[in-house]
Amino acid sequence: AIFWMVVGAFLCMILKFSEVVIAMNYREGDRGGLMYVIANRLPKLYPLGVAFALLTVFSSVGTGGITQSGASAVAMQSVFGTPKIITGIIFGAVVLIMLTFGANKLSKIAGAVVPILSGAFILGCLFVIMRNYTQIPLAIKDIFSSAFNFKSVSGGTTGFLLSNSVRYGISRGIFTNEAGMGTAPIVHASAQSTPFKQGCLGIFEVFFDTVVMCPITALAIITTGSHLLCGVSPVNFTMYAFTSVFAQSGQMFVALSTLFFGILASVGWSYYGKCCCKFLFKTNTSVRIYCVLFCVFTSLGACI
Description:
It is built from 12 helices and no strands. The protein has helices spanning 2-25, 34-41, 46-80, 84-99, 103-131, 136-148, 155-177, 184-188, 195-224, 237-246, 248-281, 284-301. Helix 4 (84-99) runs antiparallel to helix 12. The two termini are 26 Å apart.
């Protein structure tokens, strides 16, 4: 899937730039997104804007809350033995506190934490790959042979498995960079900047996330053989790769990184939900109710 994630990313850059620029052009004050684009540019399709906002609210709870807290809980339990419910409570409480800061303060926090964590994670992956440099050619061969399914024996089987590989790769790529989903422009529209600059930042997001971090992580996993472990949760693949080189400290780093990245991702998704609630119900009360429910479901999601 990693090959098609990278290929799809270059198409996703076009999508990300376009949707961000459009959202910036049709925002209302510091609020924007697909729902406002439809309301202000395509008023006859207003029900589609409402549908998008509703679906984004539900998706923010599932994708942004439950999924992130669940992955963090698995990582923390594997390394520190922390009960999932404890991780869930801490996760939900921190998200609720951060939500009270507002978008500007959140962007400052993310701007300070994410580059440090990302840089440390990339350096760690590169060190793992270099320690297993003899496996790099085999890893690359494995990626390409899986992407094009060289091992297939019949035309029908080849076509089916190739289409599956493309589908999984592109869908996972979109999951990481959100290009074309209409959600990321919601937060871009809150920026005090020009549409072109924000569009370029959108391109960089896709490139750094899907073209840089994902392949490096994949190579770290494949060169160490972590992906061949049976009965292991996917969230632990990277953890095992780091452990093979950094021992216990590698496990701890990946677990804590998963927790911090998960919290920041949840806060970002909750901002999408807040903006959509504001669009749907026009009241601050609905936003406050959403924030409380988001944190409750996020805490419970850690136990799933």
